[in-house]
Amino acid sequence: TPLDKIRNFSIIAHIDHGKSTLADRLIQRTGGLSEREMSAQVLDNMDIEKERGITIKAQTVRLEWKGHVLNLMDTPGHVDFAYEVSRSLAACEGALLVVDAAQGVEAQTLANVYQSIEHDHEIIPVINKIDLPSAEPEKVKTEIEEIIGLDASNAVLSSAKSGIGIDEVLDAIVERIPAPKGDPDAPLKAMLVDSWYDPYLGVVILVRVIDGTIRKGQQVKFMATGTTHLIDRVGAFTPKLENLPDLGPGEIGFITAQIKEVAQARVGDTLTDAKKPAAEPLPGFKEVQPVVFCGLFPVDAADFEKLRESISKLRLNDASFSFEMETSAALGFGFRCGFLGLLHLEIIQERLMREYDLDLITTAPSVVYQIELTHGGGHIDLHNPADMPEPNKIETISEPWIQAVIYVPDEYLGSILKLCQDRRGIQQNLTYVGGRAQATYELPLNEVVFDFYDRLKSLSKGYASFDYEQIGYREGDLVKMGILVNEEPVDALSMIVHRSTAETRGRGMVERLKELIPRHMFKIPIQAAIGGKVIARETISALRKDVTAKCYGGDATRKRKLLDKQKKGKAKMREYGSVSIPQEAFIAALRMG
Ligand code: GDP
Ligand code: MG
C-alpha cells in the first residue's frame, strides 16, 4: 500500500465511554465482518475483558475505506499496562478521542490524551452517546477545550450504539490524520508492538513497519534480545486473519516466526533484516518490571504440580509477570509471583481459578522494598515480607512512591482528600475546573496497592478517576506486622506497614479476622504484633454446642447432610495449629476498612 493511502490510529477513551462499541461499528461499516459474524464485541475477546469492560491486550484491525487502508489499534485501558499503551501509541499518527456526551472528560482520558499529544498525534474529538437524553455535547466541547486544550469546534458527534456519525468518523480519519512517513529503500526497521501466544500459530507478533519491507522467508534480527528468526507468515487482521506477501513502510500487521514463548518477543523491540541490519534500533525500548508481588498457594497441597503447569502456561502468553517457587511454613509449596499492578494480579489469579480450575490462597500483596543492611552488610530487594531481616540488621528501608492524579466532582472531594491523607499522601496540587477538582498527590505505592482504587470509587459513587506513575524510592519508618492466630504466626498475612499506620491496620485486621474465622470448641486469641509487641488483640469465644445438636438428634439423614456440608467447607480451609481458617478470610482480611 502506498504511504499516502495509509492511516494509523488508536482510540482513546475513559472506561465505558464507548471505545469498543465504536470500534465494532467501524468494522461493521467498512465491511470487515458480516452482520452475522459481528459477535457481541469483536475487540474484547477474553471473558475477563468483557466482564470488566477493559482491554487487556492490544488488538489491531485493518479496515478499508474509500481507497484507504485504516489500521485501528486498540490500546489497553488500565494504568497497569502503561508501557504497552505507549508502544501502541508510538505505532500511530493519530487518535480518536472518544468522550461520553453525558459524562464528560475523565482523568484516565487526560492521561492518555497527554501521551497521545507527546507522540505528536493528530487528535480527533468524538463526542459519543449523543442519543442519551442527558447528553450535553456543547458542554463536553467546552470541557475538551478548557481541560485538555484541544480545539473541539470540529468534533464529530456520534452514537456508536445507534450508528450515528460513523461515516463522519471514517471520513475524518482519512482527511485529518496524516499519512505515515517511511523510507522503502532503507534497511528494515519494524517496531514490535505486541505479542501473544496462539495454539495454532505459536507466538504471533504485531509489528509497525517504519522503514523497509518485511516479507515471508526473510531472516530478521530482534535487536534487543539479539535473536534471529525466519519469518514464515505475514498478514493482517480484517479482523479475520489474512495472509499478505509483505508489509511495507507505514503498515501495521502481524508476523509469525516459529517462536515458542512471548518472552522472546519483547514489546518495544526493533526487528531488522539479519543480512542488511539497520545501524541502530528504534528509540524507547524498555524492559517492563513487575512492581507488585504476592504468593499464590494451592488450597489443596496436592494441586501444586497443577499450579506449576498452569502458571507456566499463562507465562507463555504474558512475559510481564514473573514467578518463582516459594515455601511457607503454614501454606506449604507455592509461587512468589510478580505483576505490573493489582489489576494484573487479579487477572492472572482469576484466570488460574477459572481456566485451570484451581482453588488458591493469595498472600498479602507487597511492593518491592529496598533495604540497606547494617555494618556494610549490603543491599537487598525485598519481595516478600516473610524474608524481612531482623530490625537490628536493617540500616535503612525504602519504599516506592507514586504520583497520582485524581479527578473528582466537588461534592466528594472532602472524603477523597481524607483518604489520601490517611494513606500518607502528600498534596502537590489542587485545582478546580467546572464542578470538578483535580488533586495531585504523592503517595507510597504500598498504601495504594490493595484497595485504594476500590475505596476511591466507593467514596465517590464511581465518579472519581485515578492515574499514577512511579517516582522513585524514599526512606520510611517501615516495620513488619505479623498476625498470630491462637499464638501461631500466619505468615501469609504478615505485611510491611508504616509505623504510624500500624496500629490502625493491625486493629482492622484482627477485627475482620474475628468475623471471618469460625468459632471452634476452644477460645482463639487473634493478635497483631510488631516484633514481640502485641499492638491489637481480639478473641473468638468458644463454641458451646455441637453443630448437630439443633437437629434434636431426630433425623439421621439430615444430621449426616450437615456433617457432610461441614466436611466440604473444610476442604477450603487451612489448618493453623488446630485452627481452621476459611480461604476467603485471607483476601477479605486484607481489605482495609
Ligand atoms: P469502552 O469501555 O470504552 O470500550 O465502552 P463500551 O464500548 O464497552 O461501552 C460501554 C457501555 O456504553 C456499553 O453498555 C455500551 O452499550 C454503551 N454505549 C456505547 N456507545 C453508546 C452510545 O453511543 N449510546 C449509548 N446510549 N450507549 C452507548
Ligand atoms: Mg472496551
Automatic annotation (TrEMBL):
Amino-acid positions noted as binding GTP in the UniProt annotation, renumbered to this chain: D16, H17, G18, K19, S20, T21, N128, K129, I130, D131
Compartment(s): Cell membrane
Domain spans labelled Tr-type G: 4-181
Primary localisation category: membrane
GO MF: GTP binding; GTPase activity; guanosine tetraphosphate binding; ribosome binding; translation elongation factor activity
Catalysed reactions listed for this entry: GTP + H2O = GDP + phosphate + H(+)
E.C. number(s) listed in UniProt: 3.6.5.n1
Family matches, as InterPro entries: EF-4, EFG_III/V, EFG_V-like, EFTu-like_2, G_TR_CS, LepA_C_sf, LepA_CTD, LepA_IV
GO cellular component, one term: plasma membrane
Highest rank taxon of the organism: Bacteria
UniProt keyword annotations, A-Z: Cell membrane, GTP-binding, Hydrolase, Membrane, Nucleotide-binding, Protein biosynthesis
Bilayer topology term: Peripheral membrane protein
EC main group: hydrolase
Function: Required for accurate and efficient protein synthesis under certain stress conditions. May act as a fidelity factor of the translation reaction, by catalyzing a one-codon backward translocation of tRNAs on improperly translocated ribosomes. Back-translocation proceeds from a post-translocation (POST) complex to a pre-translocation (PRE) complex, thus giving elongation factor G a second chance to translocate the tRNAs correctly. Binds to ribosomes in a GTP-dependent manner.
Protein name: Elongation factor 4
Species annotation: Sphingomonas guangdongensis
